[in-house]
Amino acid sequence: MKKNILVVDDSALMRRLICDIIDSESTFQAKDVCRDGLEAYEKLKSTAYDAVILDVNMPRMDGLELLEKLQQDGIKATIIMVSTLTTKDADVTIRAMELGAVDFITKPCNIIEAKSDEFRRRILQMLKAVIRSDDAKAQANVQLQTAETMKPAQVKMPKKLERTGNSGKKVLVALACSTGGPKALQSVIPYLPKDLNAPMVLVQHMPIGFTKSMADRLDELSDIEVKEAKEGDVLKKGCVYVAPGGRHMEVKKQADESHVIRLNEDAPIGGLRPCANVTYESLRTSGYDEIVCVVLTGMGCDGTGGILSLQQKKKIYVISQDAASCVVYGMPKAIAEAGVVNEVVPLTEIAQTIMKKVGVQ
Question: Would you call 266 a catalytic residue per the annotation?
Fold first, then answer.
């Protein structure tokens, strides 16, 4: 049976192009179209779709307003945003994922890009990743739980953070995620203490500009410092460094035993820049005694090769998100199948698991 997709966009041309892409895949069909969020809201009140492709900017009711309305009314939907590459839309898109959108696709700048194989590939790849035929209902429940209950204000921090035997050791946390990651990170980073006894480097697959918006939003929500990494940043404990979109991030040891961020624009690896494998592999020559590797939701297997390479040179401890709480169980599955995972935990326990392993200053 084909999966039913709702397309919401105020442009008749864009609706037609997206519908044609969806219908070109035998497992999908563009069941309905809407010109704005108000029409989509009426559809979603009475009809269940396997996925919704939703534009950000529309008249009467835009994508963000629709998500807010769906959340208020408890209407469940698997929503993929379509966003332009602007700073304003990046901020809106990050907010959209807070409200329940699972991820986003960048909108073509012109008709040539819209008709390209790359745009078609991105849409179909995202749909295939977020629609799982065996547990579509379970996935919807996970998304609702994430949107409604996994908020910083509703999670109680432990009264006493557990300190482990890492005193005197130099430890780094290296986290990787992709599809569903921006939302998942809001259930992890805001629960880390500002005196975490390690720096964290974080690779989330996003375009240029979006990583800055994500880092700024996480910083607003968190006690721990969060920033988009810059060339030459000196790593310090209690700070999260987010790899900027469009650049690979490496960690390099200096003569004074400090570690700095190095960024480059080398070719994408498997279509990815930043690529988590690059970051993990750079840690092989670092001065850290142990690397705590964390792998969250995401399609593909980025991170696995880098972690396996890192394991040959460094002591590592691998924490993986469990399948039930992932939007897409791809990256965590790949590292679990590689046989190097030390703990598999639900999203809501990732922060506490990191704290137990790293401790506080």
Answer: no
